[in-house]
């Protein structure tokens, strides 16, 4: 059998559509499985006016249920006199049967009471009415509404239900809205219609100018833009996120090219592009060099061109761009630095003070980074960057909440036009990088140091006043801030100490009188927070989780050095000798596990092999230290491996757990000493042996 279910409604917000279809599919799958109804596949389709589910290969009946529920042991369920006990009666009651229906089952563990149940599967059609009704009532939206006198909550008013199993109606009713075989086509270019079969629905919905498949609409938009909107010397800027949104705003897309006054091009093109994309859902048109042209593409919900639609959208965009130009010219009437004073009135967080307070702390943190990176010659431009980095937040362009996505970019533009250096302007823009996963990373020293200083102040400040992310709750985007720092440090190859950076930030907060919690406790929490982010970043680079964990477990304070160690271990795992090293470490570590002593008394070494191992361990400790100082991590691992033969001979000859407690402890100390050498760079016990 096949089941087709369509919920028709007023236009659904674009951002709801895909997630709602996903949840409907998952919910329906769960309900069918719970009801023991087999099916082959569930497909979903959707437009702003309809949510559609198609189930293929639906079983005509439920599967029969034949189960055996085991209860307590017979001796517990029945007393010595053979009468049923309270435990036996309780089990029977929980299963909904009489005591006489209980069976005695022989098992390998003895005799137990049990209840055998057999339920014959019902006809699927008889179950679908309640199932579909539940499906509707259980749909959740970020925002729902009521309409008329109805108690039902839904994202938008429901207008119809089409529900067919093969060609037969699945009858149900929700607050006066009855299911049937009727549907509706495009609001302006289609008609209402009825269908006898499921295949007829898919034919008629197309005839009535509705494309119900989301991906098909997206592909059609790209195809029509290419065919109808691009000249040979032009390119339409098709942002993927905007494409998804626009595809979910229409039932049939038709692209129309509009124009705007070229005088608006005096405004930075990013402002105009943001205005078109974010505010109007238009696709900008550029020349082949990427320069914005006074043209755009609007996607109409229709099947043909319309001069009226074109003019209407041109008029709306013109008003929007006029606002942008006004804000821009107003902002240019004064130098950017004059905005800094206003930041004293903008609260960052009630316990951490204003944005201006944050700037002051960031400059002190930057002093550590400047010294640690040897960038004293750039101190002036770095300090100026940090001073001006947030100044555009109180500009007309950003402060009016119209173009918040352009923070940093506008600051850079205003800085240049205020006479600031290009290094400072670039730093202002780059200090926001990365803004999201996969975004650009800062390349200039000013942006790198300003960005790290700002983020570490936010991170330590929030932890310091008790604002700590939990689950999906992260109002100050602290995970993103920590990830940003990790990625910037690695990309910029900064040999800095994370711990020292965090300590400087906490000292700065304490000096400002805003650190509310114990410094040592916050330090540990922030470092653990960084550890989790570092694990994620290194794993996403393609290194196996066990290798990353093994290296990070020892140290991640210097992220650049940590990456070198991970690369070395990863390379070593590809060698034939790797498994020998791991098994060697585990053999040494396991026998001395829990023993803390490492001081070996050479006078207690009786056997020749013990003395030989003692001399070798001194040599290895010296060589290993030299390799670590030189950052020759492959060499370090080879030094460890050089002990393989002697350690194996030692275990063949020596009984470590000697009856003499003094001898035993000395031997454990010797092995423990070797284990500490093995564990200087990487915790080898966490790495899986390669097959």
TrEMBL record:
What does the record give as the reaction this protein catalyses? Answer: tRNA(Gly) + glycine + ATP = glycyl-tRNA(Gly) + AMP + diphosphate
Instruction: Note whether ATP-binding occurs among the keywords.
Output: yes
Q: Which GO terms describe its biological process?
A: arginyl-tRNA aminoacylation; glycyl-tRNA aminoacylation
Cited PROSITE patterns: AA_TRNA_LIGASE_II_GLYAB
Subcellular location(s) per record: Cytoplasm
One example GO MF annotation: arginine-tRNA ligase activity
Q: What is its main location?
A: cytoplasm
Tell me which GO cellular component terms the UniProt record holds. Answer: cytosol
| Assigned keywords, A-Z | Aminoacyl-tRNA synthetase, ATP-binding, Cytoplasm, Ligase, Nucleotide-binding, Protein biosynthesis
User: EC?
Assistant: 6.1.1.14
Tell me where on the tree of life, at the top rank, the source sits: Bacteria
- The kind of enzyme this is, by top-level EC class, is ligase
Q: Name one Pfam family in it.
A: tRNA_synt_2f
Q: Report the InterPro entries cross-referenced here.
A: DALR_anticod-bd, Gly-tRNA-synth_bsu, Gly-tRNA-synth_heterodimer
Using the record's annotation, list all stretches that form the DALR anticodon binding domain: 598-685
**HAMAP family referenced in this protein's UniProt entry, alphabetically:** Gly_tRNA_synth_beta
> Hey, which family's this protein in?
Belongs to the class-II aminoacyl-tRNA synthetase family.
Q: How does it assemble?
A: Tetramer of two alpha and two beta subunits.
Kindly provide the name given to this protein in its UniProt entry. Answer: Glycine--tRNA ligase beta subunit
| Chain's gene name | glyS
